[in-house]
Amino acid sequence: MAQFLDRRNFLKDAGMLVVSATLLGSSAATTAAPWEANPSRIAAVLYDERYSDCRSFADTFVQRGVIAFSTNGNIASLWYGPLRAYFARYGGGVAGLTAQSDPVVSQSCGAELNLKLLYEGSHDCRASNALTHQLRVRGNGNEIAKALLHSNADWAQSLADALGRAAWNNGGVCLESSAIRASRSDDHPGFLSSWALGPARAGA
Hints:
By secondary structure, the chain is of the alpha/beta class. It has one domain. Helix content is 32%, strand content 26%. The chain is built from seven helices and seven strands, in the order αβαβααβαββααββ. Strands 2-1-3-7-4-5-6 form a seven-stranded mixed sheet, with helices on both faces. The longest helix has 12 residues, at 2-13. The chain starts with a helix and ends in a 5-residue tail after the last strand.
């Protein structure tokens, strides 16, 4: 718990708002399994505050003790500001549910910090009233796909929970793909991208 509070103080010192579960719409506690237990853990989550799906995604991670960063429409400034300083101090991985172009920027900036792509997903309803999830996962994506298949109304929450529990395969570079159709939220912008980056291992 002390480590978690230290991280919060660090972000306050950096002038960055630490998003609590209450601010994101949940009264749940912000502690979960020890955040330092796994070097490839998701230690930060990025979200687009304009959309309820993104807020739900971030809120689920916050309940697991993860720090949330709003992109505020400028993800590059986030990567070269508070987020870079955060990773320099604490390390770990990062997940996001953001606008379409943000994963490209995040992969480029993450590579500078030795982070590689573990997962990416598209959540597209531009051509239909139904939402199509297209997933590409490093290693076995069955658990992530299963979470979306049985997500009912809040697919973003189910996705975040699955990503938070995922065991990534760092040995290969092949990304598997699958598509799932679901209902869309009222304020879905038409296209959202989810993604996860984690520390690269030697030879991976």
